[in-house]
Amino acid sequence: MVESGLVKVGCKARVFRNQQLIYNGEVVSLRRFQDDVKEVRVGLECGIRLDNFADFVEGDVIDLYEIELRKATL
Fold it and tell me: Under CATH, which number does the domain 6-65 receive?
């Protein structure tokens, strides 16, 4: 279940197991029921597929984030 924010296809993902980082990569697909979706909002459940990672176990924590590049200004 999405606990806060918004999950989007293409966002960065980190998977933690027992508070140890075990994966760092990208979300390649999201599903709600039988449908492929581009984003999932807080409070909703979804299926998630990460690039080159499928070794989930109960209790894993997935931390999702986006990198935003900004031009430096004075």
Answer: 2.40.30.10
